[in-house]
């Protein structure tokens, strides 16, 4: 089944790495790649905070999974935190993918960043359960993301009951 996925990533730092993942379907058919993505970030960011949050909320509509592409500074980004929070509240499947080992446009890799799921928790019977205990994180380079991405997305959707 083809899933509609929302991709969350630090645009300025990681667009090159994110594009490698978002466009991996080009050499596969979209059904095999496991996602569709219609991001229009360039136009949206000019509208400011309200426009960005509205865009995020609209993009989440009709998606079953949010894929957080985790680079060096991802966990520190305001809108990525908002996207994770909204995705969790809406019961979307969530997963993270480490992208720091992918090369940027200059052929450089980066240091690993913090797992942003470690910043959020829910209360269960008086104890904190961090989202990092709920949602998986994969390494695109070390875990053959090109081959396994569709399975990761499908599993996240199933875990969320979608």
Structure summarized in a few sentences:
The protein is an alpha/beta fold and 162 residues long. 37% of the residues lie in helices and 17% in strands.
Strand content: 15-25%
The largest sheet, given as strand count, sense and whether it forms a barrel, is:
4 strands, parallel
Order of helices and strands: EHHHHEHEEEEH
Overall radius of gyration: 15 Å
Total count of domains = 1
Instruction: Indicate the low-confidence ranges by residue numbers.
Output: 30-38
User: Structural class of the helix and strand makeup?
Assistant: alpha/beta
Mean of all residue-level pLDDT scores: 88
User: Numbering strands along the chain, what is their spatial order in the largest sheet?
Assistant: 1-2-3-6
- Number of distinct beta strands: 6
- Tell me the span between the first and last alpha carbons: 11 Å
The CATH architecture is 3-Layer(aba) Sandwich
Shape: globular
Structural description of this entry:
This protein has helices at 11-22, 30-33, 41-44, 48-60, 78-89, 145-159; strands at 5-8, 65-70, 93-98, 121-124, 127-130, 137-139. With 162 residues, it is an alpha/beta fold. It has one domain (5-159): Rossmann fold (3-Layer(aba) Sandwich), CATH 3.40.50. Strands 1-2-3-6 form a four-stranded parallel beta sheet. The chain has a two-stranded antiparallel ribbon with strand order 4-5. A hairpin with a 2-residue loop joins strand 4 (121-124) and strand 5. It is globular. The termini are close together.
Question: Which tags fit this structure?
Answer:
Rossmann fold; 6 helices; globular
């Amino acid at each position: 089944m083809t899933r509609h996925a929302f991709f969350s990533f630090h645009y300025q730092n990681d667009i090159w790495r994110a594009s490698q993942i978002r466009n991996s379907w080009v050499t596969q058919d979209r059904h095999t790649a496991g996602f569709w993505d219609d991001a229009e970030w360039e136009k949206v960011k000019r509208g400011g905070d309200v426009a960005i949050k509205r865009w995020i909320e609209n993009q989440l509509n009709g998606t079953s999974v949010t894929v957080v592409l985790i680079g060096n500074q991802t966990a520190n980004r305001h809108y990525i935190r908002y996207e994770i929070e909204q995705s969790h509240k809406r019961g979307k499947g969530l997963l993270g993918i480490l992208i720091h080992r992918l090369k940027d446009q200059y052929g450089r890799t980066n240091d690993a960043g913090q797992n942003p799921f470690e910043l959020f928790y829910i209360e269960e019977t008086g104890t904190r359960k961090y989202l990092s205990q709920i949602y998986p994180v994969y390494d695109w380079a070390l875990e053959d993301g090109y081959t396994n991405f569709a399975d990761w997305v499908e599993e996240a959707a199933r875990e969320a009951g979608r």
